[in-house]
Amino acid sequence: MLAEDSTLLREGLVRLLAEEDHEVAAAVGDGDALIAAVAGSPPDVVVVDVRMPPTHTDEGLRAALEIRRRWPGVGVLVLSQYVEKRYATELITADTTGVGYLLKDRVAQVEEFLDALDRVGAGGAAFDPEVVRRLLAHSTHADPLSRLTPRERDVLDHMAQGHTNASIAAHLHVSQSAVEKHVNAIFDKLDLSHAAGYSRRVLAVLRYLGS
Predict the structure, then answer these.
(1) 182-201: per-residue pLDDT in tens?
(2) Report field, pTM of the whole predicted structure over 0.90
(3) Positive or negative CA dihedral for 169, 174, 177, 181?
């Protein structure tokens, strides 16, 4: 399901997704209509703009958060021209299962957009690198993150975008075993080696986002 108040972009996304064999169950122009559509028949994933009628401020993100709360099995991919830090942080830190946040410029890069949509629909995560950078801009001098090497920070940055170890290895042009070593080093430096009962990967990303 799509929620985008720009008719041109909305119809363009519908056509793109149809050409890629995705079924678009509904395409609406505001957050209330999206919530009503999801309530009628929850889809695998929703794609939602941030700023929509009536105030064009944060209706889309508030709708996304409500969908996450009421239908946790529905993936949510947010598209925005801006990084809305307050709601973006809330969306990301609430649960990293089936959630994504992309800047609209990324839609023009069709393969990246479709990859993000598939990841979110499959229960993974997909965060625009620029979104991650802006959310983490204040964390560069924070301990214990300052103990990470540049390569470890690169790996953690990709983890925060929702990439798997195999995907990180491909992006950084290193072996998967090298990535696994970096990930274990990150866990050690963030004091997460013995975090029994929790996903150390999620905890590392949350530490990164919240520092």
Answers:
(1) 999 998 888 786 655 557 88
(2) no
(3) negative
